[in-house]
Design brief:
Helix content: 40-55%
Bound molecules: 5'-O-[(R)-(carboxyoxy)(hydroxy)phosphoryl]adenosine, zinc ion
Order of helices and strands: EEEHEHEHEEEHHHHHEHEH
CATH superfamily of the largest domain: ATPase, nucleotide binding domain
Mean pLDDT: 97
Oligomer: single chain
CATH topology of the largest domain: Nucleotidyltransferase, domain 5
Structural class: alpha/beta
Shape: globular
CATH class of the largest domain: Alpha Beta
Number of helices: 10
Largest sheet: 5 strands, mixed
Distance between the termini: 29 Å
Number of domains: 2
CATH architecture of the largest domain: 2-Layer Sandwich
Strand order of the largest sheet: 3-2-1-4-5
Length: 338
């Protein structure tokens, strides 16, 4: 049978990404244009993000086709993330995806960004199937989700305040380390002592699967104020290692406790924070103890990318779950099947 290619768009936050993937999850191109402009503001500025998506999207589509050695006429479907995210940013991707679908008479497949993060695991493990437990950790989300089937799932726990990625980013800002903070803290933590300082574990209660990271942020802020600048600079790797330990420990603890309680033997980590080396290593160690298998996307598919949106669209394409061109973007939070 001829290969069928899906052209996938991701523009929910500050990365414009366009990928081409086939129905066996082979990725032919996955281009990401990251908007470094936000760094100087210490966080994503929505209006700037939308404008930059608009500036990049057409050229990036051309380049994605070129890299895959394909033309628009070779494409069988258009996939696009429509929620959650910054509404202006989502609308740029959706409007362009709709116009291509209309002009080329192709089916349009809409994807929830968080399900996209989870589907990133299918690129390496195309046969991965529910039941599984997914820890979805990104800049805006922290959710523990029990998938009974791929379409039917229960949200077991979520953050009551900051997301895990946000905890990394805000702590890095307090420590004067730059944005986004997650990768910087991850790198510095490698050479630090994680027992240097005890940062608090949020919502560390039995049989409770919600998360809270705002207490950690306050504790980092108080810690920074209580020390000299020189001390913070000298010990930044130790502080990062200790901080990372606090975030990772609670994420792993709750995931493993629930998997153990419900006898779930497949654990997926998804979202930008799934790139974290400490999280990947600790989850692996603890999962082994309960004989569960851990699935984590390859690093290039952890942060926002088009390939994960394409991967989430594959089954919908096969099942002909297409969207009407009247479909709109929306910004409500969380994992949901569209
Ligand atoms: O999924 P993502 O790319 O965008 C959202 O949907 O939010 O996640 C971005 C988040 C940021 O908070 C970033 O700091 C965090 O993922 N992140 C990391 C690492 N790489 C990215 N956090 C910890 N360790 C990392 N290596
Ligand atoms: Zn994301």
């Amino acid at each position: 049978m001829n290969k069928q290619f899906i052209l996938a768009f991701e523009s929910s936050c500050d990365d414009t990404s366009i990928a081409i993937i086939d129905t066996s999850y082979q990725v032919y191109s996955n281009l990401i244009s990251s908007q470094l402009e936000h760094g100087k503001y210490g966080g994503v500025v929505p209006e700037i993000a939308s404008r930059l998506h608009l500036r990049n999207i057409m050229k990036l589509t051309e380049l994605a086709l070129q890299e895959a050695n394909l033309e628009l006429k070779d494409i069988s479907a258009i996939a696009v993330s429509v929620n959650p995210g910054l509404i202006g940013s989502l609308l740029v991707g959706l409007s362009y995806a709709k116009s291509l679908a209309y002009a080329l008479k192709l089916p349009l497949i809409t994807v929830n960004h968080m399900l996209g993060h989870i589907a990133a695991n299918l690129i390496e493990h195309p046969n991965l199937s529910a039941p599984y437990l997914a820890l979805v950790v990104s800049g805006g989300h922290t959710e523990l989700v029990h998938f009974i089937t791929e379409e039917k799932f229960k949200i077991i726990g979520q953050t009551r305040d900051d997301a895990a990625g946000e905890a990394f980013d805000k702590s890095a800002k307090l420590l004067g380390l730059g944005y986004p903070g997650g990768p910087i803290i991850d790198r510095l933590a490698q050479s630090g002592d994680e027992n240097f300082h005890d940062f608090p574990l949020g919502m560390n209660k039995k049989n409770n699967y919600d998360f809270s990271f705002s207490g950690l942020k306050t504790s980092v802020s108080n810690y920074v104020k209580s020390q000299t600048e020189d001390f913070i600079i000298k010990n930044k790797d130790n502080i990062c290692a200790s901080l990372q330990k606090a975030i990772v420990s609670i994420l792993v603890k709750k995931t493993i406790n629930y998997a153990k309680q419900e006898k779930i033997d497949k654990i997926i980590i998804a979202g930008g924070v799934s790139a974290n080396k400490g999280l990947r290593a600790k989850m692996e160690i603890e999962a082994k103890k309960i004989r569960a298998e851990v699935y984590v996307p390859q690093l290039q598919y952890c942060m926002d990318n088009g390939a994960m949106i394409g991967a989430a669209a594959v089954k919908k394409f096969i099942n002909k779950e297409f969207s009407d061109l009247k479909v709109n973007a929306f910004s409500t939070k969380g994992v949901r099947y569209l």
